[in-house]
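Readers of this paper often ask what the protein records in our data store actually look like. Such a record has a labelled line for the sequence and another for the backbone structure tokens. The tokens are whole numbers drawn from a learned vocabulary of local backbone shapes. We quote a single record here, exactly as it is kept in our systems:
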Amino acid sequence: MLSTRTGQHLKDWIVSARAEELPDLHSFATGLEKDWDAVAQGLTSQWHSGPVEGRVNHIKMIKHQMFGRTKLPCSANASFSQQQRTDDREPGLSDPCVMLALVNEDAFWQLIEDCRPTEPDPEAALLAPAVTERLAQSPLSLVTGFAEQLSWALYQLDRKEYAYNLSDDAFLYTRAAVVAAGRAVFESVLQDPAVFEPYATNLTWAESLLYTPDRAYKRITGEEWDRDTRYSFESCSNTEGWAD
């Protein structure tokens, strides 16, 4: 329904979902019914807020880069002490350009390949924990560099011709599945958007891959990571890819 915009079948889908012995699916169906008009419209209309959300994310990114994420008077000590701890661990850690250079594309894709299981794993259920474990045993610079390259790869896939009318989140998770499939698939998609279609129509999601550097960062430092990469992986952030 997401890819074909056939929201008229939503009621039938909910009936089928409730027939299954899956309580979580029942709860999901109940949530859809609570916001029926909005859900049905989202599954039917060709219009969506993706481009607007992308612009909002872009503006937020500029704001964060220039002014920081919190008001200085309220959190000066916390902000400076956090930055000092980060800088003390590894010089240049807060500079995205440095991180992109430290972990180049070859190193990024090699790590993905090294962690990929031999059996099919389209949604990265096995890959993501393996990547997290590998990063958590590495220097912090590798974690932040991996995050930069992951965001860059997702940013390159953030183009209108790949979206297939997916929601912003679905499009992001589907792009993550392409990255999880490895460099050969990723480069094939860049060459031919048609290669992306099965991921979109089958709703193949690898959301868990997105959070691997954050989880590794927390394991190393014991702290949450307020990640702010040079390129945003959020859908519709690549303004050139969405230009008419």
The chain has a mean pLDDT of 80.
